[in-house]
Amino acid sequence: xxxxxxxxxxxxxxxxxxxxxxxxxxxxxxxxxxxxxxxxxxxxxxxxxxxxxxxxxxxxxxxxxxxxxxxxxxxxxxxxxxxxxxxxxxxxxxxxxxxxxxxxxxxxxxxxxxxxxxxxxxxxxxxxxxxxxxxxxxxxxxxxxxxxxxxxxxxxxxxxxxxx
Amino acid sequence: xxxxxxxxxxxxxxxxxxxxxxxxxxxxxxxxxxxxxxxxxxxxxxxxxxxxxxxxxxxxxxxxxxxxxxxxxxxxxxxxxxxxxxxxxxxxxxxxxxxxxxxxxxxxxx
Lengths: 164, 110
Hints:
- The complex is a heterodimer.
- Helix content of chain A is 27%, strand content 42%.
- Chain A has helices spanning 25-33, 35-41, 133-143, 145-151, 153-163, and strands at residues 2-9, 14-21, 49-54, 61-67, 73-84, 88-96, 109-118, 121-129.
- An eight-stranded antiparallel β-sheet of chain A has the order 1-2-8-7-6-5-4-3.
- Mean pLDDT of chain A is 79; it is low at 144-164.
- Chain B has five helices and three strands, in the order ααβααββα.
- Chain B has helices at residues 5-18, 21-32, 37-42, 48-60, 79-108; strands at 35-36, 64-69, 72-77.
- Chain B has a three-stranded antiparallel β-sheet.
- In chain B, helix 2 (21-32) crosses helix 4.
């Protein structure tokens, strides 16, 4: 995998993230569509995600929770707002309360994911738009564990796969 | 977490200020070149008072500073708060770098 580019538009509060994977477009689509694959990468190892619902069609909703080191849970939801399988979809992603109801005090983020064939690779472009600082901060808080994680276990795992 | 509680209020103001397209446009203009509130008001199809209100929101968010020069109020852009927004986005980018690495691991198992 190569991270091709990232672009931050500070004024419009968008992040564009582009990565290329050594797999077909259909295969990369599956890591989003299949909840069992999605939950293996959505949350960091210290906060793994469990998708209880994942309805991957326009208007479909997902319900998931992430479990922290102390067993604490943070709930989130998605709503798919557009799909053009297997190359493009859009979704809203927000936090939820303990019963899984969307937290209306925070705006969801909106993301557009596109997959394109580039040479023998699949290019994934993700554009996320933020509307609220609270929400961005919470997402960052959840993601902070990842810095540590990157330094140890996962890198070993990646190298092991390369060797195999 | 890098952002402490005092900072949170500032960041809230920052994001609220940037959530409006007219205000983003004002920031873009005054960062390149200082302008008076009346100059700015002439460039938008809205009342002077409305533009003044937008300028006040931007000032509270510390994205701009205002200075009285004679009868004019001159608006300058302050890039430091924009850098804060950039830093937050950078932290979020790290989350996606890690996710992409995990996707890669899953694909490597095929």
